[in-house]
Design goal:
The chain is an alpha+beta fold. It has 5 helices and 4 strands, in the order αβαβαβαβα. Strands 3-2-1-4 form a 4-stranded mixed beta sheet, sandwiched between helices.
Length: 168
């Protein structure tokens, strides 16, 4: 299954204004070091049932200017205001912990494509409830499988229209 995703297509809230330029070292952190720094912070939040490190940080390919991509799975479907408060509280704490910019995603609110990509390719770094995580993974994979043909048709149509406009 091809889970590649164009940059900037996730729909989750990702305001990073509290995390600007916290890179205190020219040397990029190793994936294992990031996990060790992130796990204690994530474990303190009872609403988080699981967390993933994804992107270049998970693969060990961080470069200058890379951020640390973290996706969290929350318990239940609470009000968005509660999720926003958790996000606003957690983001600066994660930035301070890793001393780096963090791109935090609430995976429950992300697109089907991003959910599937993170679940499939991300590095699981925290699990508070394995049963709820298994359910979330199953639903995310099923939703992606169900809607991926529609997403692909939409993408192909947009690409065709863009090509037509550039020729005109």
């Amino acid at each position: 299954m091809d889970l590649s995703m164009p940059k900037g297509t996730d729909a989750a809230v990702t305001d990073r204004s509290d995390c600007q330029s916290r890179q205190h070292s020219l040397q990029q952190p190793k994936s294992e070091d990031l996990v060790a720094l992130l796990q204690p912070v994530l474990a303190q939040e009872s609403e988080i049932i699981a967390a993933y490190l994804f992107g270049s940080a998970a693969k060990g390919h961080m470069r200058a200017g890379s951020d640390v991509d973290v996706a969290i799975v929350l318990d239940g479907h609470g009000p968005r205001t509660d999720r926003k408060r958790l996000f606003d509280r957690l983001l600066p704490v994660l930035c301070r912990a890793v001393r780096h910019d963090v791109h935090l995603i609430i995976l429950n609110d992300a697109s089907y494509l991003l959910r599937a990509q993170v679940v499939h390719d991300g590095r699981l770094i925290h699990v508070a409830d394995p049963e709820k995580l298994a359910w979330f993974r199953m639903i995310s994979t099923a939703l992606y499988a169900e809607f991926s043909p529609i997403l692909e048709m939409t993408r192909a149509g947009l690409q065709r229209k863009l090509r037509e406009r550039t020729r005109a």
